[in-house]
Amino acid sequence: MLDNIVIGSEEIEICDFTNPQHCERLCEMVNNFISDPMGYGEPLTDRKKLRLLDGLESHPSSLVLFASDNDKIVGFVTVFILFSTFIAAPVMNIHDVFVEKDHRHAGWAEKMLNEVIKIAEQKRCGKVTLEVRKDNTGAQNLYKKLGFLESDSPMYFWVKEL
Question: I want to staple 75 with a disulfide (CB 3.0 to 4.6 A). Which of 65, 67, 82, 92 is the partner?
Answer without folding.
Answer: 67
